Amino acid sequence: MKRHINILTSIYLASSSLPAAVAFVPRTFTSSHSTNTAIMASSSSDSKRCTKTGNPLPNLPIPDPLLSLTPGTWAYDTMSRRLNEEILQRTYEENEEIMNTPPFAKALERFNLLRSELDNASTTKLRHLQFDKSTDGRPAAVVEREEREWQEILKPYIDNEDTWLSAPWLVTEFYAYRRVMEAIGYHDKSNSDTHLWDPFLVAKRAGLDSSVNSAENMLEKITSLPKTKEGVALAAAFALWGNKMDLSIWPADGDNSSTDVFAKILHAADDNLLHDDTDNLTDHCETLRERGDGKVDIIVDNAGFELVTDLALADHLVASDVAQVVTFQLKSHPTFVSDALESDLRETVEYYAALSPVKFPNAQAAGLRWRKYLEEGKWVCHEDNFWVQPSPMWEMPDPLRSDMQSRCDLAFVKGDANYRRLLGDRYWDYSLPFQDVVGCYFPCPVCSLRTLKAEVGCGMEKEQVERAKGLDDEWMVNGRFGVVQFSKDQIS
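Above: the chain's sequence. Below: its structure in token form.
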């Protein structure tokens, strides 16, 4: 397991003075397997086909989803406190001046009403999202489809009179960010000030600014990686541990803007990988390299430094002939603070291309390469509403699923929220095989690169789980530990 990571740390940190590992304050979490009678009935595993979409399902009986009812769990803390008191409060503080101007008056009023609901999360019942086709700036068919999708998602919980805490955590967390979009009038073309205004842009740009010093060192290594299995392994490892840099948990600030924070993470990486399918992944990539026409997708998670590591992975895949084309699957509206839109990706490319070639020669050269990849069609961006909704990935709709099934030779699934959707955010036994939970239903060969930030998981050996528990009480939620999980045996 440690072979690739040991090599990675040796080449990355060879001449560095290594800092001590970051210490985390332990917290005890308990699990609740409470059953909500309205939970996602469309995902019955009796026939191994989803009754909603006809897609394949996990090979195993589908367990209960995570709720937010149990004090001491990360889900409870997120929905009862952290989302409002930390994330939305920080969002307001970062945008206080503009949100208190006349064009934002209604947006601020609706934003505060949402925060009041979250202040009373245990008693406030969910409601349907509100759509206004007369002012929505998108094509009518797009609006109608999103409205229909969200009504189907929310109907069981609204009919059941569920609250922010009693409905599944994945549903309420995605719903909360969609409610932020509703509050600010993100799609309302009648208000040019709030239309397509990203309330998380300040945080994302701070993350972009603070990414450069870590990226400069990392990007120097990317261009020297060999066109071999080992090169893919190291590029994937960079992308994996880049996920630790999540702005909803670790906000960017002046304290780390001039520091190679990534070096600290890589220094501890060899002890923090709980499952490693890197050899199987690189075997598959070698097949694509030999074939010469590989099509690879990266289902992107966060902007900022993590996105830079995703771009570095895509850079190596193209440069080493594993991929002829890399498609970035991106969010269709701002969500989860730092999740990346197409505009974030393109801004990152242009930001890096404009850096000083004297101060940041490797980062600036990378930006110029990336711009060329986009211009030549070697990199493609695709936004889809499915990536901002809480449905499990076994409910992936057409045409997205059929496109990935027919076109994609490998999909990298990045980050924790995407991983939670791979598992339906349910209480799988941690040791159940990734193939039986995810690989069997996913539309193409899939590799999950995940650092753990929520209390769900699978495909981890029992001894590794016990080791992690012994090392860190918060092992499931603080991003310290990670997995590389791969499968290529899909059911058509």
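The first helix runs from residue 3 to 12.
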